[in-house]
Design goal:
By secondary structure, the protein is of the alpha/beta class. Helix content is about 40%, strand content about 15%. A 7-stranded mixed β-sheet has the order 2-8-7-6-5-3-4, sandwiched between helices. It has a 3-stranded antiparallel β-sheet with strand order 9-12-11, with helices on one face. The N and C termini lie far apart (about 45 Å).
Length: about 375
């Protein structure tokens, strides 16, 4: 059956704006695009250890067989959630199937009618989708602008207020002043929720994330960690009180009405977390590469292009979908997998090349890709 005409027109508009999304083909280019910051997704040791764990514990099962509330809550879940809670110095942990699922489930279920959600304007789409599904009123504040946030808090201070932000923003790679934000939330008795998707495996002595590294993790309402980035596998977790966990089990629809993760997926999560405790070299090498990337972009005169960031995400602003796609293609033709981020994913004139730094990138590769960027910028 033919696609409806109004949907065809939406696709045509995307094509005309040079913004049509397409699934990329697998390539063997030098990786500057994936979220596999410390190489855990390609770790043969983690792959084998997860398999051996299942065999040794006689867990020979391909699927969860149902939702966790019916038949899918296999024994590995409790083991993994207990380990994760202890790792993150949290009272409880609840695993969801993905980062998208956790944000949609959390924000659609926790804030109630007559509550107020104040969220950073650059919050991830999954957070905004969850907020849209909530019965609470929601308002965005200017990016990392706590004066604007405080103004909104004072406006709605008679309500239960949930403040929502990220410890590292996925498109800019920058971070808010988290100590200041925690103090502000405490001052007005707000419920602070932080998404740490891009800090797990990156910040902290053992990759535990930025809130824990700053020792403010026990002064907030909830942390959300996702496993598809620094941990190199799949799934996500909410860290908070045991009451919060019980509430989510009862009311988070993206948790209740979906088949659980397979034992193999949960075993991989558990083994990857165990590996974080002993794998210090990759985390150290990632930090060195981030410093080197920043040094080289400054030496090559590229600093004005880039959003200020000390994280593994480094974004060079190249306005215009056509121009940024052209630059990305030139870098790919030279063997470097750098992806363009187009509008409407980011606002018009904020299109960018997004460089993801990894522990396994060499200094030579970093220098080469930045030299190519410098050369191409002058001729595009």
């Amino acid at each position: 059956m033919k696609l409806p005409e109004n949907l065809i027109q939406k696709l045509e508009t995307r094509k005309q704006n040079n913004a049509l999304r397409q699934l990329p083909s697998f390539n063997n280019l030098v990786d500057f695009s994936s979220n596999d910051y410390i190489g855990f997704s390609r770790s043969e040791a983690i792959f084998k250890l997860a398999h051996h764990y299942l065999i040794e514990n006689e867990i020979i099962q391909n699927g969860a067989t149902g939702s966790r509330l019916i038949s899918g809550n296999h024994s590995l879940y409790q083991i993994a959630e207990t380990f994760i809670a202890e790792f993150h110095d949290a009272e409880s942990a609840l695993i969801f199937n993905s980062g998208y699922d956790v944000n949609v489930g959390f924000f659609s279920a926790v804030p109630q009618r007559n509550d107020v959600i104040l969220y950073d304007e650059l919050s991830h789409a999954s957070i905004r989708d969850g907020i849209t599904m909530s019965n609470a009123k929601s308002y965005k504040f200017n990016h990392n602008d706590f004066e604007d946030l405080e103004h909104l808090i004072l406006k709605f201070r008679d309500a239960n207020i949930y403040i929502v932000t990220e410890t590292v923003f996925s498109m800019d790679g920058d971070s808010p002043n988290l100590e200041e934000l925690v103090a502000l939330s405490e001052k007005y008795n707000c419920y602070l929720v932080v998404d740490e998707a891009h800090t797990l495996g990156v910040f902290g002595d053992k990759g535990e994330g930025l809130m824990q590294y700053l020792n403010v993790h026990n002064r907030i309402f909830a942390r959300i960690m996702t496993f598809g980035k620094g941990l190199g596998c799949h799934g996500a977790v909410v860290l908070g009180s045991t009451d919060l966990k019980e509430y989510l089990v009862n009311f988070a629809r993206s948790f209740i009405y979906t088949t659980g993760l397979s034992p193999h997926s949960v075993a991989t999560i558990l083994v990857a977390y165990q590996h974080l405790e002993i794998e210090k070299e990759n985390i150290k090498k990632l930090r060195q590469n981030i410093v080197f990337f920043n040094q080289q972009k400054n030496l090559l005169g590229l600093k004005p292009m880039f959003v200020r960031s000390k994280s593994a995400i480094q974004s060079a602003i190249v306005p215009g979908n056509e121009k940024v796609k052209q630059l990305a293609q030139q870098l790919q033709d030279k063997g470097f997998d750098v992806k363009p981020i187009l509008s409407p994913t980011v606002p018009e004139s904020q299109e960018r090349l997004r460089f993801c730094i990894h522990s396994y990138n060499s200094e030579e590769e970093i220098n080469q890709v930045l030299e190519l960027l410098r050369d191409f910028v002058f001729i595009v």
